[in-house]
Amino acid sequence: MPSTTQAAPVTKASLWTGRIISALAILFLVFDSVTKLMKIAPVMEAFARLGYPESLAREIGIILLVCIVIYAIPPTSILGAILLTGYLGGATDANLRAGDPLFETIFPVIFGVLIWAGIFLRDNRLRALIPLRS
């Protein structure tokens, strides 16, 4: 059964705000992915503290990079956001399990919100699924 809900067209301001939010999230996550691929010392220390073997750094970096690419391509951005939500949920869980401070624990949640906000502001498909006005 097709939905009768129509989203309002994306305004220019909303489109650009969404693009900027998405670009900032992508840049940070690419940086995070590259640091895992390079196995820099702070990342390896975090892996040890969280109980992950150093050998997984490259694989986790690649998984993150693939999710970012899927998110960055407009036709697949919603799928990418779903995948990144799963990735960031795992990061939140790892921080909770390790007993990290509150900010470190909720930081992945904040990025999840930014990822979804970026798409919501720029993509009518998501606005049609989640109407904020009745």
Task: Describe the protein's architecture and organization.
This protein has 134 residues and is mainly α. It has helices at 12-38, 41-50, 57-72, 77-98, 102-122, 124-129. α1 (12-38) runs antiparallel to α3, α1 (12-38) crosses α5 (102-122) and α4 runs antiparallel to α5 (102-122).
Percent helix among the residues?
over 70%
Determine Rg (CA atoms, Å): 17 Å
Number of strands: 0
Indicate the structural class. Answer: mainly alpha
Specify the overall morphology.
elongated
The proportion of residues in beta strands is under 5%
Average pLDDT rating: 91
Helix count, per DSSP? Answer: 6
Calculate the terminal CA-CA distance, rounded to whole Å: 20 Å
Tell me about the biggest sheet? none
Order of helices and strands: HHHHHH
Low-confidence stretches: none
Which labels suit this protein?
134 residues; mainly alpha
Quick description:
The chain is mostly helical. Helix content is 76%, strand content 0%.
Note the topology:
Elements: H1 12-38, H2 41-50, H3 57-72, H4 77-98, H5 102-122, H6 124-129
